[in-house]
Amino acid sequence: MLSIVICEDDLRQRKKVEDIIIDELKSSKLNMNIDLSTDSPKEVISYIDTCKGKTFIYFLDVELGSEINGLELAKQIRKYDPAGYIIFITSHAEMSFLPFQYKVQAMDFIIKFDANSIDARIRECINAAYKDYENLKTLDSNIIPITFGSRIINFNLNDILFFETTSRDHRLRIHTCEEQLEFYGTLKEMEKIVPSYYYKCHRSYLINTKKIKEIDKDKLVIRMINNEICYTTSRYLKGLLKNV
């Protein structure tokens, strides 16, 4: 789950940022929390070090009254959370070019002077980061790694047409519009991995129902979008038609 970290040495400003974030999370019904709100850059680094692999939205002041400023903190954050969303909040507009020099890929640089602007920009950043994170998560969930000898290839499940058994035991052939490749596996194992729009239409075929071009119910033949042929049986046909 995406979470939020705040680092701001001005207590009043930090409370203001917290209140805006909490209100936006409630009003937009976003499944997020503020995991840490502090004035200490070292506390931020220590915390995210214990959360390896987790992604955060960071709201950082640039001047933190510490030996580590917000830009240096952001550089450290990138070592632990390269995909994190970093937003700077500062009173110094002239510093807005510095994130580029530090190469920290900031999402936004918000100036504190305008209270209405701070409110709107914080809300925009939260929603934009949340949407981007959910899109990436959905993309990742569609990826399946398959081992071919010494190679591991990531396939997008939406691009696969079907899996079929081969004449060799525990060997399957994967079909896409571009290629066919054989690997060790069984249809029973693949059924546990693939999403519900895949259907075992025959003891030899596990097909992506989104890639069906037509079904001949009399001949029990399935034509895929690339005109390859798969077969079904009377036993599996009814279930297939429900899934199309």
UniProtKB/TrEMBL annotation:
The keyword Phosphoprotein applies. Keywords: Activator, Cytoplasm, Phosphoprotein, Two-component regulatory system. SUPFAM superfamilies: CheY-like. It comes from the Bacteria. Residues 144-244 form the HTH LytTR-type domain. Residues 3-127 form the Response regulatory domain. Required for high-level post-exponential phase expression of a series of secreted proteins. PANTHER family: STAGE 0 SPORULATION PROTEIN A HOMOLOG, TRANSCRIPTIONAL REGULATOR-RELATED. This is Stage 0 sporulation protein A homolog.
